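Write out the 3D structure for:
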Amino acid sequence: MPENYLMIMIQSLKKKIEVLDCIIDADERQKIGLENPSLDPDDFDKIVEEKAKYIEHLELLDQGFDKLFERVKGQLNDNRELYKDEIKEMQKLITTVTEKSNKIQVQEARNKELMTQKFAKVHKQARDVRASQQAVNQYYQNMKKINYIDPQFMDNKK
């Protein structure tokens, strides 16, 4: 019976590696988008939504793995020698998962910094637009006054 659980756990780890690879790919596309000056916000949102789905899938895989591990933990500890090959394979897969998770953390930190820079640039552009719009409005206000002659009081008495 534990052999079946172990195989399911191994499959779960392999699936987790696939999902982590998808997140790594999405992070790369997100980086490229953030470096693109003409980034389309809708494209960026699609990538963020895609990553959210992957993360949700990862959480489900983790929950399933944890439940299975709780079921077989006692038998694994008692019969370590009997399941040494499966345990060794799971350890190798867990190492791969950890490496990929670390890579994702680095990518996320880099993308956060790029996003901060991007938002600062957009904010500055918005400020510049407002300032130039105020200058244009001030110009038009001044131009209206140039041809305007104040009412004159004329004395019609002779």
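The CA atoms of residues 31 and 111 lie 6 Å apart.
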